[in-house]
Write a structure and sequence with these properties.
Elements lengths: L10 H18 L2 H9 L5 E6 L5 E6 L3 E6 L7 E3 L10 E6 L5 E6 L8 E6 L7 E5 L2 E8 L5 E8 L27 E6 L18 E3 L6 E7 L5 E7 L3 H4 L4 E6 L5 E4 L12 E7 L5 E7 L10 E6 L6 E2 L7 E9 L2 E8 L2 E8 L4 E10 L2 E3 L8 E2 L5 E6 L6 E5 L5 E2 L14 E8 L2 E8 L10 E7 L19 H5 L3 E6 L8 H4 L9 H16 L2 E11 L1 H12 L3 E7 L5 H7 L6 H5 L7 H5 L14 E6 L7 H13 L4 E6 L9 H18 L4
Parallel strand pairs: 32-33, 32-34, 34-35, 35-36, 36-37
Antiparallel strand pairs: 1-2, 2-3, 3-4, 5-6, 6-7, 7-8, 9-10, 10-11, 11-12, 13-14, 14-15, 15-16, 17-18, 18-19, 19-20, 21-22, 22-23, 23-24, 25-27, 26-27, 27-28, 28-29, 30-31, 31-33
Helix pairs in contact: 1-12
Length: 681
């Protein structure tokens, strides 16, 4: 979790959005408000961390903050907080000390409401104590293996979260030069005999130091086993743009950065790909990492590679796997715990590197989404191999689970009373043009055999991502449409994770064409096998899914209604408008200035006169990934051709919306749009 500053939302904009939404709701009865109300009831789990000795478990739950409990007795959880009575704040970045005696976390419950690093004892009996005060955004905290230091990613004096999904600053000054904020790895030493008595807003006297230079923006890091070095992934600033060209570095605590892996180097197995999850082997001889064609930091997928920590040959541990590893942790010098996406499900298993075999006992496939922190499919694991994670699916809302992989048990029961408002879900597969394609089909609420139902196709973002089973929130997604009475198809076409790196790279230089054919083949499969009315099929999605929505309605008239969230209508103009143009070279193979034709062939605007589908368009006004002018351009073209359309722009929102009212409004409008142009009855 990150500490953010929040910009004020203009009251006039809120008033206009609210009044328009009311008009929608009044015409649709009570079903949509009921769905939205139910979606907002689930408690979310943002972090989970098990102590190295497996004795204690900590997690963060919405509305209740940090919880600390004995692993054997999770019902005895205690609320741990640095906030005083009545004080509200953000707390995150759980980190257990190597000896399991202390839990560290970040909190802005300080005298001046700036972030600080706090420590509490393992049983949570004593009040947390402030170790050091910060002045900016911090996240991703880790103890050094010797237990003497804490390191974390830190943006000193930050005014926004350091990522492409957050709202960009309004443009002002010298663009690309003024106000650049750099995320670095920072460290604070824990006094050896510090008894934790510093309180009341004062720190222990510990001092903060930066480990990485201000010429590099760091994204991830890991301690060397001897606590004398770090490995990290970094690129020159600005950080929101350059993750796609980031390199893997090693560095001693007092030394200079050394490039270990450079994706720009030709002739390497990682050339042109992105890097994530750097991890030192227990003996310090190697560093492993994930490399693949990825869309966003933290949404990882690819193959697992190793390289000697002193430099040398890069070795692929997972060539030709029909899956997408997303996270891993060494379990010895010849073993790993790997978490991956496989055929639309979460697969977690122990892997022996020497024999290249999966464990048959410590091996589990979950039709669910799992995580322990901000990394997709990440888990928390103790020295004894006990794992802890947050788990949710279409059928089960978020809860904490822990135990041996083959004996996971539910540790919390915050959402036991919640039941799905939609029908059952099942995995569907089909073959198209030599590809095996998987997707999830959710049945409509109150499904009755013999009736014909409309279908909404929900295309995921990315494109390097996947539709996994997950319990929906009030944010945008496909599941709520099933609650309103639609079948919902959530396909994973070429370009997605889950079928191997070759499959993920199969839509390079072909956006909107092969992947659309995969989706349409899935629609054909579903309409043949299930009671779906082929004359009532709609499409929607966000980000890459928003682009696919815009592009799809220019290629076919099969879709009767569409909702495009934060989409891209013109790849040529987009190249010069967005804040993250570095991501485009790996996917398109060249810049728009060198190969404009490859961008034009996937631009919806070049086929705009073919559109007949009523389309709702929504976007945030400070979106740096898919800027608002892309939505304006698409909406303007539809309006000029008298195609039913509406554009809604949300103030002070980036690519990932943060205002709960805006999240709800988008979903409410989308539900109403489909009900208007493609009613379920």
């Amino acid at each position: 979790m990150r500490f953010r500053t929040s910009a004020a939302v203009p009251l006039l904009a809120i008033s206009l959005l609210s009044s328009s939404t009311s008009a929608f709701s009044q015409s649709q009865g009570n079903r949509i408000p009921e769905i939205l109300s139910s979606l907002g009831q689930a408690k979310s789990i943002s972090e989970t961390a098990i102590s190295p000795d497996s004795d204690h478990l900590a997690w963060i739950v919405s509305g209740a903050g940090i919880q600390l409990a004995p692993t054997d007795y999770p019902a005895r959880a205690k609320h741990v907080t640095a906030c005083s009575d009545g004080q509200k704040g953000e707390e995150a970045a759980l980190a257990w000390s190597p000896d399991s005696s202390h839990l560290a976390f970040l909190s802005n419950c300080t005298v001046d409401h700036r972030a600080g690093v706090f420590l509490t004892d393992a049983d949570g009996k004593s009040a947390p104590k402030l170790l050091v005060q910060l002045n900016g955004n911090a996240e991703d905290m880790h103890w050094s293996p010797d237990g003497h230091s804490l390191a974390f990613l830190y943006v000193e004096g930050a005014t926004r979260h350091a990522g492409a999904l957050a709202a960009m600053k309004p443009p002002a000054g010298v663009i690309g030069e003024d106000g650049i904020e750099i995320q670095r790895v920072a460290m604070v030493s824990v006094p050896e005999k510090w008894d934790g008595k510093a309180a009341g807003g004062s720190s222990s006297g510990a001092t903060l130091r930066f480990l990485t230079p201000d010429s590099l923006h760091a994204y991830e890091f890991d301690w060397a086993p001897d606590a004398k070095k770090i490995a990290y992934i970094a690129a020159p600033p600005p950080g929101e743009n350059n993750w796609w060209v980031a390199k893997l570095y090693t560095q001693s605590l007092d030394g200079e950065p050394k490039v270990l892996v450079d994706p720009a180097a030709s002739g390497q197995p990682t050339s042109g790909a992105q890097l994530a999850v750097p991890r030192w082997s227990p003996d310090g001889s190697h560093i492993a990492f994930i490399s693949g064609l990825m869309s966003d930091q933290g949404i990882n997928g690819g193959d697992i590679y190793t390289i000697p920590s002193a430099g040398g040959e890069i070795h692929n541990l997972t060539p030709d796997w029909k899956s997408s590893p997303s996270w891993f942790q060494w379990t010895g010098n010849e073993g790993m715990l790997i978490s991956e996406i496989k055929d639309g499900a979460s697969h977690i298993f122990l892997y022996d590197i020497a024999s290249q075999k999966e464990s048959t006992e410590e091996n589990i496939t979950l039709p669910a989404t799992v995580r322990a922190d901000d990394i997709m499919l990440g888990v928390s694991v103790s020295e004894e191999g006990i794992v802890a994670l947050e788990r949710n699916s279409f059928d089960h809302p978020p809860e904490v689970w822990a135990g041996k992989l083959n004996k996971l048990r539910q540790m919390t029961h915050y959402n036991d009373q919640l039941k799905p408002l939609w029908g059952k879900a099942e995995s569907v597969t089909w073959e198209n043009e030599g590809f095996h394609v998987q997707g999830w089909l959710i049945y409509p609420a109150d499904y009755q055999p013999g009736r014909k139902y409309p279908l909404v196709v929900y295309v995921h973002g990315g494109p390097s991502y996947a539709n996994l089973q997950h319990w929906p929130s009030a944010s945008y997604g496909g599941t709520p449409f099933a609650a309103l009475g639609y079948f919902v198809l959530m396909p994973n076409p070429r370009g997605s994770y889950g079928e191997g790196e070759k499959f993920t790279q199969a839509n390079k230089r072909d956006f909107g064409h092969g992947d659309l054919r995969d989706i349409l083949a899935g629609v054909d499969t579903v309409t043949r096998r299930f009671p779906v009315d082929p004359e009532r099929v709609g499409i929607t999605g966000w980000s890459y899914g928003g682009f696919m929505t815009m592009f799809s309605v220019t290629q076919t008239t099969r879709f009767r209604a569409a909702v495009a969230g934060a989409g891209i209508s013109n790849w040529q103009s987009y190249y010069g408008e967005n804040s993250i143009d570095q991501w485009m070279i790996p996917f398109f193979g060249a810049s728009v200035y060198d190969d404009p034709g490859i961008y034009a062939q996937s631009s919806a605007i070049d086929f705009i006169k073919k559109v007949k589908t009523p389309t709702l368009v929504v976007v945030g006004d400070r979106d740096g990934e898919c800027p608002a002018p892309q939505s304006f351009e698409f909406w303007h073209a539809l309006r000029a051709q008298h195609v039913p359309t509406q554009l809604v722009v949300y103030p002070n929102e980036g690519h990932g919306f943060v205002d709960p009212a805006h999240k709800t409004d988008v979903l409410e409008r989308a539900l109403a749009w489909f009900e208007k142009y493609m009613p379920p009855q």
